[in-house]
């Protein structure tokens, strides 16, 4: 898509699994109220308590998704197809081993936009794949994905059996790799999400609709859709789960296109454990489509190990 799309900042409503059952927020950073007996031990409740305690500190940037650095990841079959045809076949060969990292943060813009509920945030996530060991090609960054969001989140306390439906929401999000020409990838989505939690177990279910873009008028039209078939690979639904026995954190992401007879889904598994202060050892495994935008239509299997700074998805 064009640079205009790369700069698009999505306004909308979002539900995120970074919060659950927090005390109603005020126009100033709130304080945490007492936790009911049936909420003690909740992973998301613990996260909310930590974030509320730091909300009034202007020098603190709150994590959104996991912030991690994997200095070593391995893929047996890296995708060579996105390379520019102008490059010689042996000019830029991908290493099987590369580094991967993610930076993700959010900060509040307004609290209680609708009575005592509805809290507006801005969030940004950067995910990068770095051919750091590829000295022959000057260690380039193979791909970087940018994902800005505006978030409007609503507290909720519905129950389903022993689980609490902590939040409901809708959202709009933009994602782009910030590149031009044949390597440009981007899309915009509207989605709804629900999160449930019970003690050390939490999960969220998200479904989305892609905002349509016009077709390209010619092959390199910068204003046309760069990836019209992306929904066939990244689907329309995603399930994320977190389990935290003791100090361990296990997470799982499942994604699939329920309308396609092709097996084009994805699974991502991760594990982390604290080793020093906020630093956690972190391992990640991905298998499927859509690990990165440049590889959205190529199957990827990758395993990596490194460190993370926070423990939620």
Count structural domains. Answer: 1
What's the number of helices?
Answer: 3
Radius of gyration: 20 Å
What is the approximate shape? globular
* Beta-strand segment tally: 13
Sheet of most strands? 12 strands, antiparallel, barrel
What distance separates the N and C termini? 28 Å
CATH architecture grouping: Beta Barrel
| Nearest-integer average pLDDT | 81
Provide the CATH superfamily: Phospholipase A1
Query: Helix and strand succession?
Result: HHEEEEEEEEHEEEEE
Structural class by sheet pairing and helices = mainly beta
Q: Could you tell me the CATH topology label.
A: Outer membrane phospholipase (ompla), Chain C
- The helicity comes to under 10%
Low-confidence stretches: 1-38
Q: Which range does the strand content fall in? A: 35-45%
CATH class: Mainly Beta
């Amino acid at each position: 898509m064009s640079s205009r799309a790369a700069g698009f900042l999505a306004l909308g409503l979002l539900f995120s699994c970074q919060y659950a059952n927090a005390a109603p927020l005020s126009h100033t950073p709130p304080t945490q109220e007492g936790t009911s007996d049936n909420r003690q031990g909740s992973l998301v409740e613990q996260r909310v308590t930590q974030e509320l305690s730091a909300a009034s500190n202007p020098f603190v940037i709150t994590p959104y998704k996991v912030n991690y650095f994997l200095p070593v990841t391995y893929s047996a079959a890296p995708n060579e197809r996105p390379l520019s045809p102008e490059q010689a076949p042996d000019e830029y060969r991908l290493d099987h081993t590369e580094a991967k990292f993610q930076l993700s943060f959010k900060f509040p813009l307004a609290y209680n936009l609708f009575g005592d509920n509805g809290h507006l945030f801005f969030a940004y996530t950067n995910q990068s794949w770095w051919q750091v060991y590829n000295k022959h090609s000057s260690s380039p960054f193979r791909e970087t994905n940018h994902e800005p969001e505006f978030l409007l989140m609503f507290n909720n306390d519905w129950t389903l059996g022993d689980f609490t439906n902590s939040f409901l929401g809708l959202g709009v999000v933009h994602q782009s790799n910030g590149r031009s020409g044949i390597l440009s990838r981007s899309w915009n989505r509207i989605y709804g999400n629900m999160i449930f939690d019970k003690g050390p177990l939490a999960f969220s279910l998200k479904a989305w609709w892609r905002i349509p873009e016009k077709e390209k008028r010619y092959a390199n039209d910068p204003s046309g859709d760069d990836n019209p078939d992306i929904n066939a690979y990244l689907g329309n639904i995603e399930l994320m789960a977190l389990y935290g026995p003791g100090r361990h954190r296990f997470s799982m992401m499942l994604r699939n296109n329920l309308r396609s007879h092709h097996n084009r889904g994805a699974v991502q598994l991760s594990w982390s454990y604290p080793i020093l202060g906020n630093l956690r050892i972190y391992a990640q495994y991905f298998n499927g489509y859509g690990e990165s935008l440049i590889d959205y239509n190529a199957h990827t299997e990758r395993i990596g190990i490194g460190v993370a700074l926070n423990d939620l998805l």
